[in-house]
């Protein structure tokens, strides 16, 4: 043993730890490349479907309309609704949008939604026009803003909710037209 100082024999094979490290990084690299291509393909597919998504979103607005529906209503299964809104109170609250799957109109969510739609059309007017939805978007905005004008019936008066949310949410569609 005294003469063996300084002489060590090394195996030409890499250690298990270095192989494990190499395979870990190789695996990570392969997953990263695959993920890059999957994300790129998904992004390209999503971009191609933007016009369709926009069209369906605007159809949803039409399906949520309250009031006397226009002749060009694209959601054929919908009919007029809420034609007596405000009648008992002596005000005309016909119009606007229902909040969800019920027959209640909530002013704050509707105001936020119409504001975001308006802002989106301003910000992305070129893309909305290219998708052929600019006119439908303007109609959706006007439907909401016309209702807000009606709901502001006097100075310092705004009808923020029309309908009974508790009743319609527990009794199905509840409200009659």
TrEMBL record:
<keyword id="KW-1133">Transmembrane helix</keyword>
<keyword id="KW-0326">Glycosidase</keyword>
<keyword id="KW-0119">Carbohydrate metabolism</keyword>
<keyword id="KW-0472">Membrane</keyword>
<feature type="domain" description="Glycoside hydrolase family 9">
    <location>
        <begin position="50"/>
        <end position="166"/>
    </location>
</feature>
<keyword id="KW-0136">Cellulose degradation</keyword>
<dbReference type="InterPro" id="IPR008928">
    <property type="entry name" value="6-hairpin_glycosidase_sf"/>
</dbReference>
<dbReference type="GO" id="GO:0008810">
    <property type="term" value="F:cellulase activity"/>
</dbReference>
<protein>
    <recommendedName>
        <fullName>cellulase</fullName>
        <ecNumber>3.2.1.4</ecNumber>
    </recommendedName>
</protein>
<comment type="similarity">
    <text>Belongs to the glycosyl hydrolase 9 (cellulase E) family.</text>
</comment>
<keyword id="KW-0378">Hydrolase</keyword>
<dbReference type="InterPro" id="IPR001701">
    <property type="entry name" value="Glyco_hydro_9"/>
</dbReference>
<dbReference type="InterPro" id="IPR012341">
    <property type="entry name" value="6hp_glycosidase-like_sf"/>
</dbReference>
<keyword id="KW-0624">Polysaccharide degradation</keyword>
<dbReference type="GO" id="GO:0030245">
    <property type="term" value="P:cellulose catabolic process"/>
</dbReference>
<dbReference type="Pfam" id="PF00759">
    <property type="entry name" value="Glyco_hydro_9"/>
</dbReference>
<keyword id="KW-0812">Transmembrane</keyword>
<feature type="transmembrane region" description="Helical">
    <location>
        <begin position="21"/>
        <end position="44"/>
    </location>
</feature>
């Amino acid at each position: 043993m005294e003469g063996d100082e300084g002489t060590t024999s090394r195996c030409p094979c890499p250690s298990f730890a270095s192989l494990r490290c190499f395979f870990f990084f190789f695996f990570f690299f392969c997953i990263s490349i695959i993920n890059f291509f999957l994300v790129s393909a998904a992004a390209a597919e999503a971009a191609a479907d933007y016009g369709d998504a926009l069209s369906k979103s605007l159809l949803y607005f039409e399906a949520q309309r309250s009031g006397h529906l226009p002749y060009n209503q694209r959601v054929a299964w919908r009919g007029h609704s809420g034609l007596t809104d405000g009648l008992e109170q002596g005000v005309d609250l016909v119009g606007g949008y229902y909040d969800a799957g019920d027959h209640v109109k909530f002013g704050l969510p509707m105001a936020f939604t119409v504001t975001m739609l308006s802002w989106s059309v301003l910000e992305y007017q070129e893309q909305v026009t290219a998708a052929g939805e600019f006119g439908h978007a303007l109609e959706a905005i006007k439907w909401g803003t016309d209702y807000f004008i009606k709901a502001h019936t006097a100075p310092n008066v705004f009808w923020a909710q029309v309908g009974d949310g508790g009743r319609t949410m527990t009794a199905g569609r509840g409200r009659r037209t």
